[in-house]
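Intended use. Records like the one below are meant for learning the mapping from a protein sequence to its folded structure. Do not use them to infer anything beyond what is encoded.
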Amino acid sequence: MAEKIAVLSQKGGTGKTTAVRHLADAFRRAGLEVLVVDLDPQGNLSDYFDVDPEAEPTIRDVLVGQAKAKSAVHAGGEGVDVIPANLSLAEAEVALAGKMGRELTLRRALKPVDGDYDVIFLDCPPNLGLLTVNALVAGDHALLSAEAQYFALQGVEQALEVIELARDGLNPDLEWLGVVFTIADMRTVHSRDARQTLKEHVGDKLLDTVVRQSIAYAESAERAVSILDHRPDLGADYVQLADELLRRLGLTDARRRLAPLLEGAGAR
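Structure written out for the chain above:
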């Protein structure tokens, strides 16, 4: 059975999709079989993995019952499998809204592929609507992304409310994996203060690794290559973050396999 991780944020621009892209690559380099599910109608994660924008079927077809999850899996970059999304997913969300048991749709749809992977990342849309609730009900863990800015805590608190909603009778076993602090320039007082405020409120749920801000992420997205290849010095952030998450997930063997890459990244 795969460890299913829903990655969410209250709004766009928090580095959420970027985090999924590079954590999936780091986990794959740790010897894990990884699937990512793009639940954002913008399809940015699918683009980042260089999936053909005309690829069919997509997660939309899966959610409305027109395709099975296995048939919607496409090969992405660096050996990571992808169930892609495009703008038609927005229509599916509307269709789901009137369906009985709508919050359970994704959980049921993913069951046939659950045994094929070690980890499944669910990249939520940049809001806390029905698709995000579906991801939380389907997931075993929730990972929040927070941008290094003043309103980060507010966004985390709103996301935690939705996590509690999903737990309440829908997925009581859902665990909050933590918060990753992204797009940060820790040379600035603003970033340091924002992180300290988060730390005071969420304690050890705030992951130690800070993902640095850089234009190189936009460059790697344009080229559809991992930051671990495009800029290994920055990719070190995601190697260290992956190591933290593997520890929290209890995936000891994968941590051991990641160790040489972690050593190569060096301490920052």
